[in-house]
Amino acid sequence: MAELTITSQNFEELVLKSEKPVLLDFWATWCGPCMMIAPTLKEIADEYPQYVIGKVNVDEEIALAQNFGIVSIPTLILMKDGQAVDSLVGLRSKEQILKFLEG
Predict the structure, then answer these.
(1) CA–CA separation, 1 and 19 (whole Å)
(2) Fewest C-beta atoms under 10 Å: which of 18, 19, 57, 77?
(3) How far is CA 18 from the centre of its chain?
(4) What pLDDT was estimated at residue 103?
(5) What are phi and psi of 91, to 5 degrees?
(6) pTM of model > 0.70
(7) Contacts with 16 (C-beta within 8 Å, 6 or more apart), sequence order
(8) Which of 36, 56, 52 is CA-nearest to residue 44?
(9) 35: how many CB neighbours lie within 10 A of its CB?
(10) What pLDDT is attached to residue 74?
């Protein structure tokens, strides 16, 4: 599945109502580590259709970032059944992200 752009308008439909686990990537265009992790997340989105990868631009979606208490980016938040169950902060390898998803 392709990566999805998550906004305040589609958050409920694409994240809260998702039947699959959703990995939210809180990022910004000016964030170097965010740009470095982006290809890895795209690979995971393409190779693991059992997960939804949602991209949340913190500059455009300030309210969502505040709701999740985002203070550092990139921050990855794993959502299951509409609930945040875990988070990772900072640049991570593909292996670390997959272990996080499966954990």
Answers:
(1) 14
(2) 19
(3) 14
(4) 80
(5) -70, 130
(6) yes
(7) 79, 82
(8) 52
(9) 14
(10) 98
Q: Which residue has the tokens 């990772």?
A: 88
- Residues with a catalytic annotation lie at 31, 34
Burial zone of 42 (CB within 10 Å; 0-12 exposed, 13-18 middle, 19+ buried): middle
CA pair distance 68, 7, nearest whole angstrom: 13
Q: What is the pLDDT of residues 15-35, one digit of tens each?
A: 999 999 999 999 999 999 999
Strands (E), 3-90: 4-5, 22-27, 52-57, 75-80, 83-89
Are 74 and 26 in contact, with CB atoms under 8 Å apart?
Answer: yes
Residues 37 and 25 sit within 8 Å (Cβ to Cβ): yes
